[in-house]
Specification:
The protein is of the alpha+beta class. It is about 55% helix and about 15% strand. The strands form 5 sheets. Strands 1, 3, 4, 6, 8, 9 and 11 form a 7-stranded mixed beta sheet that branches. Strands 15-16-14-19-20 form a 5-stranded mixed beta sheet, with helices on both faces.
Amino acid sequence: MLRIAGVIVLGLLCFSAPVRADDIPRAELEAGLTHLPLSPYVGYRTDPDGRADATTLFQLAAQGGFQRLPKGDATFGFRDEQAFWFHSRLFNESNTEQRWLLVLQYPLLDNIDVYLRYPDGRVDHLASGDMLPFTSRAIRFRQPNFWVDLPQRTEVELLVRASSKSSMQAPLALYTFSAFAEMERDAQLGIGLYDGILFALFFYNLVLWISLRDSSHFWYMCHISGFGLVLFCLNGLAFEYLWPNQPKLANLAIPLSMCFSQMAMHQFARVFLELKERWPLGDWISRGFIYCYAIAAVASLWVDYRVAVQPLTYSVFPGVLIVLYQAFHAIRNGYRPARLFLVAWAMLLLGTAMYASVSAGLVSKVFVTEYGIQVGSAMEMILLSFALAYRYANLRTENERVVREANEQLERNVSRRTAELSSALEQLADANARLRESNRRDVLTGVFNRRHFREVFEHLLHQAAETRQPMGVLLIDLDHFKKVNDTFGHLAGDECLRVLSQRLQTEVAADNAVVARFGGEEFVVVLPSATAARVQEIAERLRRRIGSEPVRYGGKEIVITASIGTFSIPLGFSFNPDDALHQADDALYVAKNNGRNRVHAANKS
């Protein structure tokens, strides 16, 4: 009866097997080889009811019953089949290393059975997976692994059975021990650095939350905690370090941490974007997501793992879209902090979506998609300017201290209070005056910044129109500035900008001119009451002065030149700032196209 049942199973599997496109090559271990990905040498077939055995599948492999991996990728996403079988032929041609480590590079497979058939008919069976204790693995590592013996000049058949309620991903690779140690070292270093970033981010927000009592920092900490636990589980580290002998808890932790992370993410978006006040409908949508995730978290305690994880994975996509749209909506309504939120969270959410796409089998498993979450969340940390929040916390604490001490002093002595209050007001006025002046100046060069220049320029244009006085505008661009940075370094480039600004201010000091840094290596000079001839004269003088002597920095001499575009506003004409600057910018463009280190006047229009 058993023999008849085996024949029936074999016949059913043969009937359901797809037609083989071509022969699958065997994997040959040549001399000096230390690492070999097996995807190009692996065939696969599905086992819908999960009842096939190794003997049957070895026979099917001999009959060509396996097909190539789709696009050479062993990522299949969530599938209904009970099991997948993978087959490969391993031939140690001349490699002196005979003991190899077989690594299945996805940590969330439930059961993995490895069969090795040798020429003498011997079949070795090895088992692992996250439904077995962590100690069943050959080496203590987050991904399932097995020691395999591959004698020289011997072909060994490899047969792997994988089953999982999670996403089906089974990329196989062979390593020598030294190559594996090197790979593990680099991987652990990267994971350690990333986890360090998460810890720093958590404690930094903890300090801010304690200091500011701003609930957005609290919910961000909750999201970091849940998010970190999700990655800890998905990378197999939670199974390795937190519950190595509790496979069921390892599986349960994944949907619970996903729910907690997503709930905290939507709650953080609600608080940060002030959805309740600014967009009630968006607030209700986020609350709906939170309620759904709370129900899913409770249900995951009883329902099957796949029933819980698969919808949670797919729910990432609408979650990503709604949070991004909420940020766009807030920006359209003039909420400026939403811009930073959008940029920072777009990186994190994009990475999360890429990982979910891999799990769903929508995209191939490559570095960017596999580690999209880590890359995206690291970018988020870089983009978010925590320094500003921390500075705000310090300023508020200092203000509270000053007010408290002032109140105590007021209660002790009215006369002293008056004197101290007057002194404090004078200091505050002085500080405000210095702050106003600092806000007008470019930090690097000391000339006016673009924002203040805009205000001054508008005033000068209005004044010139009322008094019927001419005016000149010069746009000055340092030639080949990128080459200076590339050759001498950015600090040398900064020194060139400082020297340029000093020469500009010195040369036009007697002309009552306004000098400002327009952006990058561009400067703008406004010459009130200057005729067209005078504007050209000053521009030529500036050009000669800029290139008159090199900039000395770090023992080197850097020759600099500049291109200048001029625009003269004659009597009786009225221009707005953008039009005048546009004319000068067009002239500057012509000067640079005509060979640089020259002055070009704009045509009056």
